Fold each of these.
Amino acid sequence: EVQLVESGGGLVQPGRSLRLSCAASGFNFDNYAMHWVRQAPGKGLKWVSGISWNTGTIAYADSVRGRFTISRDNAKDSLYLQINSLRAEDTALYYCAKDWYSAIRSPDYWGQGTPVTVSS
Amino acid sequence: QSALTQPPSASGSPGQSVTISCTGTSSDVGGYNFVSWYQQHPGKAPKLMIYEVSKRPSGVPDRFSGSKSGNTASLTISGLQAEDEADYYCSSYAGSNNFVFGVGTEVTVL
């Protein structure tokens, strides 16, 4: 059974940094691309970033490029998202999602999300 | 990376069919067959219902079907059931390793 468990969210002051983690199990993690997707309270899904199976391809939404850094450790079956210079508009539930392919194509399985609240 | 256009809401009575549209451009929906549809119940994570325009993952009822014509993709739910009441999001690969979601459609079972 595919399982994705996010962690690292919380209440953070504007301008600070945060590192989100996603622990994967139940599948060969190093065979698949991975994504971060966020959902602000009461709003729709927004793709944040994706990374291919071997880290050869990394992509970001325009709204986060330069502040967010996605990475993965295939030896630890883990995905990460470093978020710097946090803004109020970054407040959202952050989902980790597995792609059905080795390159960035489309998420299939999703975690339950970790909440990030940016407020002073 | 503009969001794909979906109607804000759709509804139908039990047993009826409802179709949700998802309109993009030739750079996303129209340019690739990597269109997916997700179902999201309140407080829950999204669930993949359709991938590659019309393929159903294992376990998804065949009441759910997908199609595409030009820059518009569609999700049809036939034989609507109470448990189908949820938000539905389309998504598409948008080239150059980018990805975009639709704005979402709230489906109500009357």
Note: The mean pLDDT of chain B is 96.
Amino acid sequence: AQSVTQLGSHVSVSEGALVLLRCNYSSSVPPYLFWYVQYPNQGLQLLLKYTSAATLVKGINGFEAEFKKSETSFHLTKPSAHMSDAAEYFCAVSDIYKLSFGAGTTVTVRA
Amino acid sequence: NAGVTQTPKFRVLKTGQSMTLLCAQDMNHEYMYWYRQDPGMGLRLIHYSVGEGTTAKGEVPDGYNVSRLKKQNFLLGLESAAPSQTSVYFCASSLASGRMAQFFGPGTRLTVL
């Protein structure tokens, strides 16, 4: 079975600082990986997805993620945090039918 | 284009009561999903459907039933609600295949007393 593990349930960053959210995956086949964001009291929306076309994936709102097969990782980064980035972020891996989500990482941004 | 909509947004039930949550999508998507979200546990898949008339069990199906009589609608039923089913429920859809992006509804907050 495929699964993901998100390291750190809470991350606090200063405005303008680097945002780094960690995700490791387990998969017996080449994985399809996703990052979703959930703003307070809303549903999830797609940030970016990896489908083996390129190891560095660019998403919306300045986020990007790098697929590293040797480390089974798909970490999410943003060079400069903005107050509007405060949200919960979910890493997910898919099989042909469905997604399996990590437990989520809540990001708070300090002014 | 409304995307994915969920009805109702909030509901309070007493233990043993039943209810149905409605999910509708207007994107002509084949796949639809029901998740529950609980603090610290991410989203867990309850049931899913890969097309009209089909349903399948997800990770946590016990206590729930689903139906997909029309392509655009996916219903989630609780026959006899329990306090353990207090959660936020999200519906999602994707064009085809779990490997495509899923689009989520705004959620339904259910409390079972």
Note: Chain A has a mean pLDDT of 94.
